[in-house]
Amino acid sequence: MTKKEGKITFLVLLTGVIALFHYAVPTDQHALHMIHIGLRKLYFLPPVIAAVWFGFRGSIYTTLGVTALLSLHAFLDWPGNYMEQANQMGELASFWVVGLIAGSLFDRERSLLRDLAKANEETLVGLVSALDLRERNTRLHSQRVKEYTLLLADRFGVAEEKKRAIGLGALLHDVGKIAVSDRILLKPGKLSDEEWMEMRKHPGEGYRLLKRISSLQEAAEIVHAHHEHFDGTGYPRGLKREEIPQGARLFAVADVFDALTTARPYRTAASYDEAARTIHEKSGAHFDPTVVKAFEGIQPAEWDAIRKRYAVDSGSW
Q1: pTM
Q2: Residues 6+ apart with CB under 8 A from 111
Q3: 3-class state of residue 287 by DSSP
Q4: Per-residue model confidence as pLDDT tens digits over 234-261
Q5: Bridge partners of 267?
């Protein structure tokens, strides 16, 4: 059962339980009549909960159900007291007022949160683009590798909320390089052992930077582990197998694929077949074999579509 299906089931059961007690409690005694009236007030709960979970449309459907239940009860046991009749009619109208207003407000809140999230992501893309330009040879790399990682995550059936964290982790994977000096980052030749030690600190620096932001803590874990290898030979912590977050294991394949298929001043871009062969050879060592299998199940045209969208030139394999 999905999360959405679970919520719908809860709403149906809640409404059913309220209706069961409402129908069952008689009104021939004053004390029972008071309980009966109190149970009617509980009908306000399902429309409000539906508004919180599903917005305007959910509150409409739930209010329709509550209206049907209360109307049926009124038809079966219509009170002779005109004041009680007016009270029930007023409650029916109130259900709709509450349901419609709550649904509208929560839809508006969701829209504002989406706009805020989009603005935040655009800010992060701007930051990452600046970092990519700083390295000169990795233009649009972070955005490409994010899309590659999400394509793999989609094949794994990763939930949407988790995919967002994975996408942000992939996008921000090299943010720690902001702490690496240009002397090392932009060095055209081979790095010395001391320089490599400095470069290898960037996953930890990125993690320390992002973990302070509550909305990026899951992404921070991926940033921290994006250079770990499946066999435990990676860095900075030497994690292996399932110790490595799933997002980082997905990213590892996407990152190497992009590195191989992107032209650099010192080498030409590999073809899809060449890159796929290299990734296959490192399955079980550098990469999680299940991720490699998922990679191999994706058609080259799907990778190429992403590459073209974020390519400096529009060539193809």
Answers
A1: 0.65
A2: none
A3: strand
A4: 999 999 999 999 999 999 999 999 988 8
A5: 264
